[in-house]
Write a structure and sequence with these properties.
The protein has helices at residues 57-60, 71-80, 103-112, 156-160, 199-205, 386-390, and strands at 2-3, 6-11, 23-24, 27-33, 84-90, 93-98, 123-128, 168-170, 176-178, 182-185, 188-194, 216-219, 226-234, 240-245, 264-265, 276-281, 285-297, 316-321, 341-347, 351-352, 358-364, 379-384, 394-395. Helix content is 10%, strand content 31%. β3 (23-24) and β4 form a beta hairpin. The chain is built from six helices and 23 strands.
Length: 400
């Protein structure tokens, strides 16, 4: 069955991951056993029932199936819908993520919301609150060991005197994420991490943030691994934390699961729909993802997981698809993948570009549970790097 960017294949016996293609005829291949439920992401958004809406012509000209719209276009759409928290462009249409309300109130609101956009080729849909695969519902403590499969909790500093992107990083609380890449801004060199790994410490000890004796980062297990440094800064109100490494700690921007080094940060403007990417993480190793959309937060919205920022920024998130639902056998998006660098491997029109070492973002909130645990999960989000690049950050090409 073909559904938008997906091709769903139902089999008596699903082939092993290593023996099946990621895409077939340009569609992300989703493999299911006979009788298994279809993933919810195949149909996203409910229809409005009111008269069609007319938008400014410069907005509608930028909305086209299978082509990413600009940040300015999505921000303009957020202003059209007063009750929007987010606007997502996904493959062939817009999904307006509304402020959460009761189901009864939501159904009533659909009667007042426009069904289509006039003179526009993309669909229009609505969702009651954030989309299930991006909803901020963190577990008290990520525990990837509860998921079937093997994780790599190696302390590489002890074994090899250096560590790499995707290696396990632990906070003092025992939360775990994947190491990002080494970046620099002038004379400052930092390791990128997912800041929410230290969110509990920030909530209880914010006054010590930036102190070398707090917000410690450990490579390996929190109790037995090697302390590598501390989270010295956080970039604006994003989920990008920046670890200052201790003297004598060596990090190499060489990925372990595929042959390339991190070489450059790229902005969202250089990413196209259907570009393919790789991530490398201690919980799942190598996995392929495909860009299927982009998501923007309305200026007046606030992520409740993150401390109140001094100012709001337009948070742009790339939307990526894996061909394997969360609760199925590996490979899959799993807890602990947060912080992993997204490395472009294939351009939509340009073929294999893995050797360029282009980093498009860092995985974000992919260890969040869907609204119902029996839902499969094909989509995940990634924080893009536009503002980070504009602030002067780049890949540190010198081994530390």
């Amino acid at each position: 069955m073909e559904s938008g960017p997906y091709l769903v294949l139902t089999c008596d016996l699903v082939p092993e991951p290593a023996s099946r293609p990621f895409t077939i005829a340009g569609c992300v291949a989703v493999w299911l056993k006979e009788g298994e439920a279809m993933p919810g992401e195949l149909m996203i958004g409910d229809s409005g029932e009111a008269a069609d809406i007319r938008l400014e012509s410069d907005i509608t000209r930028d909305l086209f199936p299978y082509r990413l719209p600009s940040k300015a276009t999505l921000q303009a759409v957020t202003q059209v819908f007063e009750s929007a928290q987010y606007v997502t462009f996904y493959s062939t249409g817009l999904v307006i993520e509304l402020i959460p309300q009761t189901e009864e109130a939501y159904q009533e609101s659909l009667q007042r919301l426009p069904a289509h956009i006039q003179d526009c080729f993309v669909t229009l849909g609505y969702h009651n609150g954030p989309l299930a695969t991006t909803e901020m519902m963190r577990k008290s403590k990520p525990n990837p060991t509860l998921i079937e499969g093997t994780i790599d909790n190696t302390d590489y500093l002890t074994e090899e005197e250096r560590f790499y992107p995707g290696a396990i990083i632990s906070s003092s609380d025992g939360n775990t994420i994947s190491a990002g890449v080494l970046v620099r801004n002038g004379a400052q060199s930092r390791l990128t991490v997912a800041f929410h790994c230290w969110d509990h410490e920030y909530e209880t000890n914010a006054q010590s943030f930036g102190n070398p004796d707090a917000f410690k980062a450990v490579q390996g297990d929190a109790d037995t691994g090697t302390e590598i440094g501390y989270v010295k800064e956080r970039f604006q109100s994003s989920d990008i934390g920046l670890v200052k490494l201790h003297d004598g700690i060596t990090f190499q921007n060489q990925f372990m699961e595929f042959q390339t080094n991190a070489k450059a940060l790229i902005s969202s403007e250089s990413i196209e729909m259907a570009d393919e990417f790789l991530i490398d993480s201690y919980v799942m190793g190598r996995q392929t993802l495909k860009c299927l959309g982009i998501r923007i937060r309305k200026d007046s919205s606030r992520e409740h997981l993150l401390p109140p920022p001094g100012k709001y920024i337009n948070l742009i998130q790339g939307i990526y698809a894996t061909s394997e639902p969360l609760i199925k056998s590996p490979p899959k998006i799993r807890e602990g993948v947060c912080g992993s660098a997204l490395v472009r491997s294939r351009k939509r029109w340009g073929g294999d570009v893995l050797s360029e070492g282009a980093i498009a973002g860092f995985m974000q909130f992919s260890d969040l549970r869907p609204k119902t645990l029996d839902n499969s999960q094909l989509l995940c989000v990634c924080e893009v790097l536009d503002d980070f690049i504009a602030d002067g950050w780049e890949v540190d090409l010198v081994e530390r």
